[in-house]
Design goal:
Number of strands: 10
Subcellular location: Cytoplasm
Structural class: alpha/beta
Main location: cytoplasm
Shape: elongated
Number of helices: 12
InterPro entries: Rossmann-like_a/b/a_fold, TilS/TtcA_N, tRNA_Ile_lys_synt, tRNA_Ile_lys_synt_N, tRNA_Ile_lys_synt_subst-bd
Keywords: ATP-binding, Cytoplasm, Ligase, Nucleotide-binding, tRNA processing
CATH topology of one domain: Rossmann fold
Largest sheet: 6 strands, mixed
Oligomer: single chain
GO molecular function: ATP binding; tRNA(Ile)-lysidine synthase activity
CATH class of one domain: Alpha Beta
């Protein structure tokens, strides 16, 4: 008997590897939009769960369909995606409607609402993992956007294969692969019209224009393989960024422990750090530690810019009596008596 098509086997292998540490009998959830990537993921996950990721090691597999309500007919699209998941054998299957009108622009608000809904569903259903259908092409697009925005290594490192409950089995597969998987299973994916805007449509999402216009131009000018190279760059930078983040966390712990006097700090003091310990560190490590400290004090990481971090860094390395540095949150960073303190601003002038 002939085995599955190579691309189907590759998808199943990717899911098996992504679930290699999930205990037998656990529930895993597929985040499904009805598009080719998530439907292919649903098909592969249903197969792996039924047979177990290692022989008889069976799992339970369900799906969550998030309806962002951003397009006419979104409820019907979500219902069709849920029906497709059930037909694949996924159970339970839930449709969750979210409000995507939060801060951060339409794309950012939709992403935040989606991840919040997935986290809530995982907690409610007791899932051990949530699988996302991002592909190598998605990774490449994100890296290219980061380069254009002048982002640092952490942003250019792209999406992690694992982060908490979230797992992305298909980061090594192409979008054409997931389309082929759907064809092999007789699945009809939904095609999001915003993913294929008309050339030159400036109202279209930026990522969609990168996908439809920028990357094809780069492939034409630089030759095939640009997307693969961008994804490889992300993998390399992720290793470096992880190492630097670990060093920064160690520095942050040392600077907190070495604060002058060593006495405990009163509740509400925020993050208090020894300036001398910070000043001895390499700039790349120190600035990452300061970013971590600001986030720990309550500053939203997505709102912290390099200018904010450099302003706090100046309190350590270029101290000449300047006043506090204002950070998003709002959080305040100030220096006094050999200490750097970062805390939420509670009163005017504090």
């Amino acid at each position: 008997m002939a085995g599955p098509a190579p691309v189907v086997a590759a998808a199943r292998t990717a899911v098996t590897r992504a679930l290699d540490d999930v205990p037998a009998g656990s529930l895993v959830l597929v985040a499904c939009s009805g598009g080719a990537d998530s439907l292919a993921l649903g098909a592969a996950t249903a197969f792996v769960a039924a047979r177990g990721s290692r022989g008889s090691r069976a799992l339970r597999a369900g799906a969550v369909v998030v309806d962002h309500g951003l397009q006419p007919g979104s409820a019907e699209v979500a219902a069709a995606a849920a029906d497709a998941c059930r037909a694949l054998g996924l159970d339970p299957v839930e449709v969750v409607r979210v409000d995507a009108g939060g801060p951060g622009g339409p794309e950012g608000a939709a992403r935040d609402a989606r991840y919040a809904a997935l986290a809530a569903a995982a907690e409610r259903l007791g899932a051990a993992a949530v699988l996302l259908g991002h592909t190598l092409d998605d990774q490449a697009e994100g890296v290219l956007l980061g380069l254009a925005r002048g982002s640092g290594a952490r942003s250019l490192a792209g999406m992690a294969t694992r982060r908490g409950l979230l797992r992305r089995p298909f980061l090594g597969l192409r979008r054409t692969d997931t389309e082929a998987v759907c064809a092999a299973h007789g699945l009809t994916p939904w095609h999001d019209p915003t993913n294929a805007p008309a050339p030159g449509d400036r109202a279209a999402p930026v990522r969609s224009r990168v996908r439809g216009e920028a990357l094809p131009v780069l492939e034409d000018v630089l030759g095939p393989g640009v997307a693969v190279a961008l994804a490889r760059t992300a993998a390399l930078l992720r290793e470096d960024a992880d190492a630097l983040d670990a060093l920064a966390a160690e520095l942050l712990a040392d600077a907190a422990r070495d604060t002058p006097g060593g006495e405990p700090h009163h509740p509400g003091a925020g993050v208090v750090l020894d300036v001398a310990t910070l000043a001895r560190a390499l700039p790349a490590v120190r600035r990452r530690a300061l970013r971590q400290a600001a986030a720990r004090a309550g500053s939203p990481p997505g709102s912290l810019t390099r200018a904010h971090v450099l302003a706090v860094d100046a309190l350590v390395t270029a101290w000449h009596g300047q006043g506090p540095a204002d950070l998003p949150g709002p959080v305040v960073a100030s220096r006094a008596c050999g200490r750097l303190r970062l805390h939420p601003r509670t009163h005017e002038g504090e």
